[in-house]
Amino acid sequence: MSEQNQHLDAIQDIRRMMKRSSKFLSLSGLSGIAAGCWALIGAYFAYDWIAEYYNNYGDNGYSGAIFQKLKFNLLLLAAAVLTAALVSAFFFTWRRANKNKLPLWDHTTRSLTLNMLIPLITGGLLILAMLSYNEWRFVGPLSLVFYGLALVNASKYTINDILYLGLSEIVLGLLNTQFIGYGLYFWAVGFGVLHIIYGFAMWWQNERRPVQDY
Amino acid sequence: MANSTNPISGLNKIFDNRIRLGVMSVLMVNEEISFNDLKQMMEVTDGNLATHLVTLEESGFLKVHKGFIGRKTNTTYSITRTGQKAFGDHIVALEQMIKGMK
Question: What architecture does CATH give domain B13-94?
């Protein structure tokens, strides 16, 4: 090996180690696509149930056993969508890490998780607090805004595309504050459509062919 | 610096080794990193990594912090000013070597 190649090798080594040690690069675009699909399925069911409630019990208002049942069902649906999205997101990312022979749980994943959870838990608690005052109008906008902030914060520790996904979610959430009552549509776009678009873009850029850069 | 025109002067013998170079690269972009994380990234044995870390510590390039998580020791490392400078000089020298050879 010539001396020049040796020096080039050294520089490539340095670059690789810097990148690999500070960013979690195994995040799979397929994770986003899967999460987006689950969100759209969930939104479809929620829309259906809510429409049915209004058709049959139009004058019942927001109290009574039937309304409580709808609320309970929607909560269950939300939990199911979240679980399905997390499990499939985890699966595709685990598969990609495995393929690239990189650890799934190292200190980059730890910083990523921590930086994502801080805004996410803050937003979640804020929304719960508002619900306890019967203030439900901002559930949609705030969940989008705080999810967006979580992504922006986490983007420093992973693939850069996450920054733009986060910014889009924030804009969408803020827009939603001017269209209160259309929360479900904004949710479907934010958690469904945007995830699918960005997931596909990430997959197209980074995963179509095997990466040599690791 | 009188010898700044000579690119070879910036090349640091200590960074000739792949593991030592790798450790320094990781420390440049991470404020603090544990022994186990380093081991996982370098894919080396405990003893091997420890030897190289001692060399770097003795050159004044990194600081060692000994701590505990419960009863287990948790040793973390961070880069020193001297280390940052030496590493920066080394990279500049590498670049100049490559440019000079073209």
Answer: Orthogonal Bundle (1.10)
